[in-house]
Amino acid sequence: MIQTLQQYMQFPFVRYALIVGTLIALCSSLLGVTLVLKRFSFIGDGLSHVAFGAIAIAGVLNISDDMLFVMPFTVFCAILLLRTGRNARVKGDAAIAMISVGALAVGYLLLNLFPTSSNLSGDVCSTLFGSTSILTLTQAEVWLCAVLSLAVVVLFVLFYNKLFAVTFDEDFARAVGTRVEAYNLLIAVVIAVIIVLAMNLVGSLLISALIIFPALSAMRLFKSFRGVTVCAAILSVACAVSGMLISIVGGTPVGSTIVAVDIAVFAVCALIERVRG
Amino acid sequence: MALITCRDLTLGYESHAILEHLSFTVGAGDYLCVVGENGSGKSTLMRTMLGLQKPLSGSIAFGDGMKQNEIGYLPQQTAIQRDFPATVWEIVLSGCQARAGRRFFYGKADKATAAHNLERMGMTGFRNRCYRELSGGQQQRVLLARALCATRKLLLLDEPVSGLDPKVTAEMYGLIEGLNREGVTIVMISHDIAAAVRYATHILHVGGTKTFFGDIGAYRDSAIGRRFIALEGGDEA
Question: Which of A159, A169, A176 sits opposite B69 (nearest CB)?
């Protein structure tokens, strides 16, 4: 088995995949705690469907580097969802359901009307579940992923205290003059960036799992915000790396293997919490 | 000059007025209780004083070197906080977010302030404990310590004893009274009219068309005060 791995490691695309996978797993787990606690998890889910629709549109428009289109489009929708979420007249969750399911339907429709390759269902499947995309990254995409991931990590560390304040008690933060709207916007934009990045790793349907599971697992084990955040980051990277290695050796789809490992870890963490009482 | 001067305030949501023509002042060292029935606009008034929403008309002026973002606020607990993984220390330190301003991290002075206020609330021993595992009274002390980090002069308390048992409620009132003696001005929303007339120096009674503002003696003598004390606090007064 080690031999098989060594053999695969010789290919640059496998090394790229591991590097990018690790970075994506790291930054997707950071905001997970905030998302879960702010009850924003559904925004993550909605946005991943939006990103799928955006990819379809990029395909139809024949945009060669679809990240350049998908990224701004998803960020725009993130801001839109955040605004409607706060508007009392439009029910936030209904708006999100409309946008996300609508994007999914229109995306699939567009792919059917303007097929870009002969293997339509293969295309759709890999966009939704990310079956091979992580292994087909070009060097430029690896760099883009690396730079954006690092930017997310740096932003998170710098604004860690503010994010904690805004997550724990928005009203108090606003009352003492913290610019809550600006930080909510920052959170939404960063989530959108993470989702577009993570699509490469696990595909659009499984992104929420990558964001939510490490945070939920860490919350079983730790009682401080810092402890939960650090633990979530470590668990996320560990699950992503082992998931990728398993999928290389076993020939299973990358995205779903990583999520399966995440689920297993969550089960173990929940068990530990139960045993501890 | 008064810390807060409210002139002819009309409060509400989207042109639907809940409270009209409200005028009152909060002086340094006062202990003002805001009383009134449910839905009379007490919380709306507090949110307006904090700048969380705008008054429909009228003005709120801050004096004596007081700024709106220097109010220490004790909100009612939210559902999010009940399962939030955070230590007591992390929460109290977040009270320093205004004084940290544009700095990304808390400095030595911020940490000293947080430690001092934790001590004031008698919660130093709970520093590394998880917030959600504390009792209701302990949680309120933590949030009060956080509010004290945000202010030197004025605390705004929104129903600080709701959901607490009688013994813990008495302790909480004792703590707040102590802070008031140290010179912290208190504005408190309260359901508990018996405690309000016992501790407060001033009463603001809101509700419907009848509002009352004055010191505690005048409130006891007023028609609205007599009726409300008899009605709500009959068993204790």
Answer: A176
The string of DSSP codes covering A4-69 is: HHHHHHTSHHHHHHHHHHHHHHHHHHHTHHHHHHTT-HHHHHHHHHHHHHHHHHHHHTT-SSTHHH
- Restricting to A residues 99-138, those with a Cβ less than 8 Å away from any Cβ of B are none
pLDDT at A222: 92
Over residues A136-146, the pLDDT tens digits come to 777 787 888 88
DSSP B135-155: -HHHHHHHHHHHHHHT-SSEE
CB contact under 8 A, B51 and A158: no
C-alpha distances out from residue B184 to A80, A161, A259, B67, B109, Å:
43, 27, 53, 15, 20
B-chain CB neighbours of A164 within 8 Å are: 86, 90, 94
Instruction: Give the gap in angstroms from C-alpha A175 to the nearest C-alpha of chain B.
Output: 5
The predicted model scores a pTM of 0.86
Complete domains list, chain B, with CATH? 1-66+153-237 (3.40.50.300), 78-151 (no CATH)
Cβ-Cβ contacts under 8 Å, B86 against chain A: 164, 168, 223-225
Pick from A35, A89, A169 the residue to mutate for testing the B interface (most B CBs within 10 Å): A169
By percentage, how much of chain A surpasses pLDDT 70? 91
**What confidence score (pLDDT) does residue A88 get?**
45
Quick check: ipTM above 0.90?
no
Q: Is A87 on the interface with B (CB under 8 A)?
A: no
Our CA-based measurement puts residue A31 at a distance from the nearest CA of chain B, in whole angstroms, of 14
- Which domains, from first to last, does chain A contain? 2-270 (1.10.3470.10)
* Residues B192-230 pLDDT 10s: 888 888 889 999 988 766 788 888 888 888 888 888 887
Is the confidence at residue B45, as pLDDT, over 50? yes
